[in-house]
Amino acid sequence: MEDAEDERSFSDIRGGRLSLRCRDYSPYCREFGLSSARLSLRTLTAVTCAVWLTAYGLFTLCENSMVLSSAIFITLLGLLGYLHFVKIDQETLLIIDSLGIQMTSSYASGKESTTFIEMDKVKDVIINEAIYMQKVIYYLCILLKDPMEPHEVSQVVPVFQSAKPRLDCLIEVYRSCQEILAHQKATPSP
Amino acid sequence: MVLKAFFPTCCASVDSGLLVGRWVPEQSAAVVLAVVHFPFIPIQVKELLAQVQQASQLGMAVLGTWCHCQQELEESLGHFLEGLGTIFSHDPWLQLCREKGTRCWSCKAIYHQVSSSPDTPSEDQVMLIFYDQRKVLLSWLHPPMTVPNCQAGDVTASARGLAAIFDTVSRSKMLFHSDRFDESPVRLSHWQSEGVEASILVELAKWASGPVCLLVASMLSIISAAGTWRLWNLWPLSFIRSKLSACEQLRHRLEQLSLVFSTQKAQSPTQLMRKANMLVSVLVDVALGLLLLSWLYSNDRIGQLANALIPGADRVAEELQHLLQWLMGAPAGLKMNRALDQVLGRFFLYHIHLWISYIHLMSPFIEHILWHVGLSACLGLTIALSILSDIIALLTFHIYCFYVYGARLYCLKIYGLSSLWRLFRGKKWNVLRQRVDSCSYDLDQLFIGTLLFTILIFLLPTTALYYLVFTLLRLLVVTVQGLIHLLMDFINSLPLYSLGLRLCRPYRLADKPTALQ
């Protein structure tokens, strides 16, 4: 069975480029991958130069060469830590009818962290508004329910937190998810 | 609902056969546990399934057929497989097929029941989910606390959602005991069919744990019976017992050990975790204690410690004497009442003199006592720390005494002052009504009362200063003891087994499935 795949480009709330890749594995299994721009050489050079210039300035003030070597260490460790813990390159949302929803974040160093939510716990997928610093932004989130109390929302899990796409991208993802969830609600568990 | 078939990854390349496992109707999921190969006798397959069903309390059945052949399904094989569907009737009947050498799979689910209403939708597609049997078997899912109105024996209610799948695999251990080297009439393929995986050390430990537990439990019961003698409740001993923290720690450890070595098996995963944590913390404690022991007893450190102890106590006493001399003069520029100052100062100085002579009396025996007491470190680092805390308490006993005297004096003074202040204002404390009432005093009562009041109030700074100084000293000692107790509690209660499990085998600690791959 062929799976349909298409890739489009959108922008995030700051104007950066994002690319959304929707894969339709089957009528009840879809995957949305949102990739943001990679770490640019320009920012990296700028930050490194700034750190080393300040270190050189301190060195001329206090004549201690430890400042220079510690600046090098800090730059290296800082870069590694940033790539491994902070910079998220791609976020994926995999939704499988009657099984669950899985969110994967892959970092620039290759690390992947996944979260899986069973379909029993998913109440709905909605687009919500939030006040973020001086802006009002839209974000997609999954509402969770406790299977014992199906009419109350127990938790709200936001999706695509680091990519932060704009409303047009969110609407695409929202429509696809709702198709699958509608199918899931039409055939409830006995 | 979409029909989900959970298929073990180890069976993806085995020969054709029958699929056996469990059907979970609430989620429309078929969990395949093993593949039965040809040739087989249907009666024996049914017997095996009945045995496994009895052992695991779950409904086992033949779920369908598995076909792994060279090219497209041959006609005769196709009819044979359909014939099997009539022998082992199961609704729905799965037919999984894979071509050798390729990655083409075909899955079909056939519903035998004729649907009553003519406009029901066509059969759903089958979703095939691969799972690693070994990992799913070894992950213990720790479910959250069950709702109070569930019965303890009501096991189906506790396994909801995907937890039911994990539950199915872990409770069917009996099915995985036969491997392909056994001469059983039914040939199965599952994750252990190449040979049952086990570790010699684990098996030996399990076999030895029975007698060892019995032996240790009996020894511990003798010790705890000795500990509950009525003799220990006589007055001096019970008082000393309540004050020494080493006894408390010993008792705590004894309780923990008797829980760990009790002959009952753990009822639930949390209890097992608790027992394992206790055992690991006791072992780590004893290891650290032995390390301390080897460090203390090498290079005659005990002798050095004993030799440093007496001069140390002397120095502390000297410092206290200096302090009292300072208080007897004009401390921090405050002017004290000379007579009271001298009395209190001389009283406390005499006490210090007594204390020093007592320490000097004990000095020849210190080394022996320390040597024998240090041997108790082999019972654990926490015991050694508690003994250290007790030694500090004993050595600073004079500071404690001073604090008690200072506090008593101050307390008396404050009571006297408050009662005379009430008299000064013409009021009285009514003990029956527990409140302050007005009262008419005679003239001589008022005169004496006012006199005493002024005396006490002018003596207040002196007593308050002594009280403050000795309270601060006592606080210092209590802080040091408190830090030692904190360290002891930390060692006692750190769950090292759970931490180690989290680092090495995180799937044993999950409470819900965390990731698909």
Write up what this structure looks like.
The complex is a heterodimer of chains A (190) and B (517). Helices cover 33% and strands 44% of the residues of chain A. By secondary structure, chain A is of the alpha+beta class. Chain B is built from 14 helices and 10 strands. The chains are: A alpha+beta (190), B alpha/beta (517). At the A-B interface, strand 6 of A face loops of B. Chain B: Pfam families: Gpi1 (PF05024). Chain B: It comes from Jaculus jaculus. Chain B: InterPro entries: PigQ/GPI1 (IPR007720). Chain B: The chain crosses the membrane at residues 278-297, 343-361, 373-396, 445-469, 475-499.
Provide a compact summary of the structure.
Chain A has helices spanning 41-62, 66-86, 167-186; strands at 4-11, 17-26, 29-36, 88-96, 100-107, 112-118, 122-132, 135-146, 149-158. Chain A is α+β, with helices and mostly antiparallel strands and 190 residues long. The interface between A and B is medium-sized, with 22 and 19 residues.
Question: What would the keywords be for this entry?
Answer:
heterodimer; A: 190 residues; alpha+beta; 6-stranded antiparallel sheet; 3-stranded antiparallel sheet; 33% helix; elongated; B: 517 residues; alpha/beta; 8-stranded mixed sheet; 14 helices
Question: What's the helix and strand layout?
Answer:
The complex is a heterodimer of chains A (190) and B (517).
Chain A: E1 4-11, E2 17-26, E3 29-36, H1 41-62, H2 66-86, E4 88-96, E5 100-107, E6 112-118, E7 122-132, E8 135-146, E9 149-158, H3 167-186
Antiparallel strand pairs in A: 1-2, 2-3, 3-4, 4-5, 5-6, 7-8, 8-9
Helix pairs in contact in A: 1-2
Chain B: E1 3-8, E2 17-24, E3 29-37, H1 42-56, E4 60-69, H2 75-87, E5 93-99, E6 105-110, E7 126-131, H3 133-138, H4 162-171, E8 188-189, H5 200-227, H6 235-243, H7 245-260, H8 269-296, H9 301-328, H10 338-374, H11 381-395, H12 397-425, E9 427-430, E10 435-438, H13 443-493, H14 496-504
Parallel strand pairs in B: 1-3, 1-7, 4-5
Antiparallel strand pairs in B: 2-3, 2-4, 3-8, 5-6, 9-10
Helix pairs in contact in B: 7-8, 7-11, 8-11, 9-10, 11-13, 12-13
